[in-house]
Amino acid sequence: MADSKREIERKYEATAETRLPDLSRVAGVSSVVHQGVGELDAVYYDTEDLRLAAASITLRRRTGGDDAGWHLKFPVASGIRDELREPLSDTLPRSLAGLVRSRVRDGALVPVVRLRTARDVHRLTGADGSLLAEVSVDTVRAERLIGGEAGRQSGGETGGKPGGRPGRGGTAVWTEIEVELADGTDPALLDAVEKRLRKAGVRPSAAPSKAARALAETDPGDRRRGPGDGRGTEHGRAALRGARPDSREDTAGREAVETVQGVRKDEAREGTAPGAREGAGPATAGDHVLAYLRAQIEDIVALDPAVRRDLPDSVHRMRVATRRCRSALRTYRRILDRGVTDPIGDELKWLAAELGIDRDQEVLDARLRAALDTLPRTLVLGPVRARLQIWSARRGGSRRRTVAVLDGDRYLALLNRLDALLADPPLRSAASHAPGHALPRALLKEYGRLAARVGHALELPPGHDRNLALHDARKAAKRARYAAEAACPALGKPARRFASRMKAVQTLLGDHQDSVVARDALRELAVQAHAAGEQGFTWGLLHGREEATAAEEERQLPAVWKRAARPKVRKALGG
Q1: Which terminus of the chain has a lower count of CB atoms within 10 Å, N or C?
Q2: Rounded (5°) CA angle 332-336-341
Q3: The pTM is what?
């Protein structure tokens, strides 16, 4: 696995005449140590249509400096990126190629721009001599390697040798100041340094990265551009944002990245989902459904590298986006032709199931460990923790399987089909109707399905059959909730309230199902312990606690359902 580093930095505009102010006067900085000037040479790779740049992702091969090698950077938030590094080699390392596969697909990665940088480095140190930050004055010379005949000659299939010739976009030169925090430094130092820089007349850069600026300022489409000015054209402005011009997915892409890193607030707490915002602009029912689908599909694509990196909650988030997408296709069949969407829904079901192998084991492990931690030591008899550790080791195999799925042709074909769905949506006549007519009808239909399943489950006596019925009701509650989330931008408060009530039912039934699964696992662990001659007391105790938990949740269900089924909630939707 590639080495990973969290990069926290800020960039500022400068000129060849710019001089750094005395930064030793910044609070917490004891001294400024000049390191001298070094030469860096980096070739940035992307597809010919700049798919990585559109997602604010940069991939480069750099020589010079103390970190020569391949670098892949993912945005986290403004001024914060995760950088993954591999040693210098002639070809793109497989570990990094896999992390961009959901963006690149079957496209070739080619050299798109080359940056030669003269970097004048100053280190800010604390009273104990520890490194706080590096301040660099960079003189950058950018050379476009793609565009026109030269771009085609630059070649470079994925993993090919670096190289290339300048395209028709030409070159650009600029100077900038970069302030990068050292590991463990309080980010407040950046504010203090910026205050000193601003007093000296230095202003923040508009470009999110050197690569984005280089692509903008060497854009061959703008013949009126003066030296070092790529911001006068729409393409230039898009590149400075790190996005393709005229891309309807820019907002969804940025939101998806924030979702991966946990920057965006969890809108689901209020009954809304990613991409579901009021006042978003779509006019018809079809517009609203497609906007929701676009956000979920972008989440799937953006979460792919996070799953491969085993980032916290990444599998869960990707699985939820997959389920939301499938649910929307099933719920809004009067808007999208099911003859086209049903096969895609089947593939989404397959992907969610594959992701579930890893996610379900992760959740179960956490539940059993938490339950064990609540027991007094006197009730933990035998090598219980060691037994659980051995049992939990199965997750390593499930993780390998998950990555193998993401590397497979079937998954890649699904991503391409989802793109095609958005590019040419199979809209039915109801798609042109006002959302206030078509969307409530779909929500009320999902509510009816849930009501029937809850009623059936409550009629059954406690036991296996009721557990199965409650699990079916949980799936119906989740589908009703997702349907409401997709409708929130159009229907506003009634849809949010409906989604919140459905979420309450889903949460209770989900906790109940987790208890059912935990009891099965505990019985399996008890059998293994008995076969090994170990004490089974602790496993039986935990099993009994889970039984009591499930019984309490079943007792609460009628009241929770009664609140969710209030007539005024349905009436607000027109039911």
Answers
A1: N
A2: 100
A3: 0.80
The strand pairing partners of 74, in sequence order, are 82
> Which residues lie closer than 8 Å to 371 by C-beta, 6 or more apart?
518, 542, 545, 546
How many whole angstroms separate alpha carbon 518 and alpha carbon 360? 11
CB-based contact 520:550 (threshold 8 Å):
no
Model confidence at 261, pLDDT cuts 50, 70, 90, reads very low
SS3 315: helix
Place of tokens 């959740």: 363
Q: Which of 140, 288, 125 is nearest to 210 (CA)?
A: 140
Question: What is the distance between the alpha carbons of residues 138 and 64, in angstroms, rounded to a whole number?
Answer: 14
Least confident of 218-232, 257-271, 510-524: 257-271
Q: What does the DSSP 8-state code read for residue 573?
A: T
CA-nearest of 466, 449, 335, 353 to 401 is 353
Q: Which residues contact 65 (CB under 8 A, 6 or more apart)?
A: 38, 40, 119
Q: Which residues contact 496 (CB under 8 A, 6 or more apart)?
A: 270, 271, 272, 484, 488
N residues, the chain: 575
Q: Closest Cα to residue 8, out of 76, 75, 56, 80?
A: 80
Place of tokens 């007792």: 555
SS3 469: helix
Give the span between the Cα atoms of 535 and 541, in whole angstroms. 12
